[in-house]
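Revision sheet: structure tokens.
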Amino acid sequence: MISRRRSSIGCSSADGCFTSTAQRCAPSTSALTIPPLQRHPQTKWSEYPEFHGQNYRNPHMPESERRSAYDPTRAALYRPGDADDFFVRTGRGGTPALCAELARLAYCNDGERRRRSLERVELVERAFLDIDGTQVLVAVGGGRAFVAFRGTDDPKAVWRDLEAWFTPWERGGRVHTGFAKYLSPVRAALSQVVEALAGDDLVFTGHSLGAAAATLAESLWPRATLCTFGSPRVGDAGFAATVPAERVDRFVDCCDKVCQVPPEGLGYVHVGALRYINRDSVVVNAPTAEEIELDQGAGQKTYLRRHAWVVWRNVLSRSLADHAPINYVVAL
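Predicted:
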């Protein structure tokens, strides 16, 4: 059984720590100096296209390698933070790919492993917030600041997922009650984070429940850009209007069931442009509903043939397996 974490804020060797009523850390006397972001031999930053106006197939990963990289295991879905291969794949770079790995890294409780992983892409952990069941990783480098929210990984977070009734949102419209409660413990600390990083380009990101929290944060601090993975619907149309759609990339991996809840029939809508990842891990912009339905059907059949029968190791359904953070990383 997963133990409940104490409320805390982890501080790096920065020139200050973001505090909360849960715990306060004294700032260090040394100032944090972040070197300009240089091209890393593994990441190839300058060669990576953004996802606007065209489909994207990772040029560094042939189709056969993408298929072998797809991870159908229960470990990939339920224990993404146990991995130690963050940012190690060749051809990684650009904001969406970087955010996908940061969203996965946010599940990691090992501070040394996070530090070592971030070094691979010349980022520094500025803070790690862990307050009353909500975790947020803040990483900085090269004039950019990334705020990555962790998704569901303990019983308290599961309960937040189930509180699907609406509550009024201060910026407008209504939002999922559980998602608002998940963000609430870290809001004061996040306000300090955003203020301290005023000179950096700010990016919110997250996976699953973390994607929902990042979407709420984007509504509160709309100067940021937002990149989400496996996000559920967060609020109604009134709430969606508070989020600048042109600053949002919302990735959905083929059959990922989490992206289909809560149902539209309850008044929920998605926020931002859809970046659809098809069954072959190719990012497709603006597919039609018919194209998505056909692709999902073919993907389910392929999963049954290749993976579902390995019941002692793999997730039984592609609707859940596609939600694993690593399967978003593979496509980018």
